Description:
Blueprint: E1 3-6, E2 9-12, E3 17-23, E4 32-38, E5 45-50, E6 57-59, E7 67-72, E8 77-82, E9 91-98, E10 112-113, E11 117-122
Amino acid sequence: VQLVESGGGLVQAGGSLRLSCAASGRTFSSYHMGWFRQAPGKEREFVAAVRWSGGTTYYADSVKGRFTISRDNAKNTVYLQMNSVKPEDTAVYYCAAANSYTSGRHRHEYDYWGQGTQVTVSS
Length: 123
């Protein structure tokens, strides 16, 4: 499966942004999906994940209550709604797909990755 992220950009602190990840292939609905991010000089970290049905979601503590992950299997797309953004949310955001996972919080659980989209939050 190929993944293409979009929706990144420059936003002021306290603002909102919605990232999208479009997937190719007819089996998108069978994949569990996740969002990770990587800030300069830091490791890539887990942000949020959603199981194939969309019924179960997981979040990093740092974004819980501010970010929402969702998916539209009819459109082969997963979203990350980012509200009340902070300067520390600045990073390249990556979409990932997994055939299966346990927690969805670890990079090694994912089989496919997108190229990333830059999000910059100004203070």
